[in-house]
Amino acid sequence: MRLDDKSYLINYIQKTYSQISLFAFFLKISASSIEHCLKHSRNTIKNPIRPSDNNPSLGFLFFKTKNGRKLRMRDWGDSSFNFDIIDLVGYLIGKNPRKGKEFIEICHHIIKTYNPSQVAFKQDDIYESTYSANVTGI
Asked: Is the Cα torsion angle 89, 93, 96, 99 positive or negative in sign?
């Protein structure tokens, strides 16, 4: 693995790990909570990293990119919580993904700490067609 190549690291993460299970693992929520949000864009849950979220306001959507699709979380009650998985992990460990060295540190953290056995649902491939109506730009 090329440990300092940003493109290689992000491609490795995207091709190796389920986006749903990564979010579930790092947010410490069940994958079924994310699946609930993906069923309809109005379905939301309480944001586990924003303690003041007394009314469920966190949603998840897939959106199209030039390289496929990407899962993003969006807190409709606080727009500062609009993250893809790299942004989320960066926020959680206090790193800025817009800085090259810190981006690489975030990727390394994901690869080192992610444990799929701690996530109830591991594969999000079946959702590609099911949730194609929810694929959007945020």
From this structure: negative
Q: Which whole-number Å values give the CA distances from 45 to 8, 37, 54, in the listed order?
A: 33, 7, 10
Cβ–Cβ under 8 Å, residues 82 and 70? no
Distances in whole angstroms, Cα of residue 85 to Cα of each of 55, 82, 120: 23, 10, 18
Sign of CA pseudo-dihedral 14, 33, 78, 105: negative
Query: pTM for the whole thing?
Result: 0.82
- pLDDT mean for each 10 residues of the chain (138 residues): 78 91 95 93 93 93 87 95 97 95 95 81 41 41
Report the amino acid identity of residue 89.
V
CB 86 within 8 A of CB 10: yes
Contact in structure between 36 and 58 (CB atoms under 8 Å): no
